[in-house]
Design brief:
This protein is 21% helix and 19% strand. With 113 residues, the chain is an alpha+beta fold. The structure holds FE2/S2 (inorganic) cluster.
């Protein structure tokens, strides 16, 4: 019998999402994702995934993912797909990724913009 309070028998998730929750002080040399509303986006993604009944997915905030100039930065594993989330309108497409595995190509983080 599992000792895990959620009844899990092995560690891990089908998909694991990290949304940058790093904050830098005003005037810092690099921007930070919290100033773009990343924590609200993370909470919205988390609650939306729960409401949609998407199982075995973990959405959580992370520290700086080091692509600060291109955020709000988000990465989904195991695919290792990196997203830049502009606002709440991007949440639905990330949810589709979590549900079906279909990557939201238009949200991919691009370094050459
Ligand atoms: S502050 Fe978000 S990636 Fe660095």
């Amino acid at each position: 019998m599992s000792k895990d309070p959620k009844g899990r028998t092995e560690p891990g998730y089908e998909r694991h999402v990290f949304v940058c929750g790093h904050e830098r002080a005003e005037g810092a040399s690099r921007p930070s994702c919290t100033h773009r509303g990343s924590l609200n986006l993370m909470r919205l993604l988390k609650t939306s995934a729960k409401k949609a009944g998407i199982k075995n997915v973990r959405v959580q905030k992370s520290g700086c993912l080091d692509f600060c100039e291109f955020g709000t930065t988000c990465v989904v594993y195991p695919e290792g797909v990196w997203y830049s989330l502009p606002d709440e309108s991007s949440i639905e497409d990330v949810l589709t990724h979590l549900k079906t595995g279909k990557v939201a190509e238009h949200l991919r983080l691009e370094l050459n913009e």
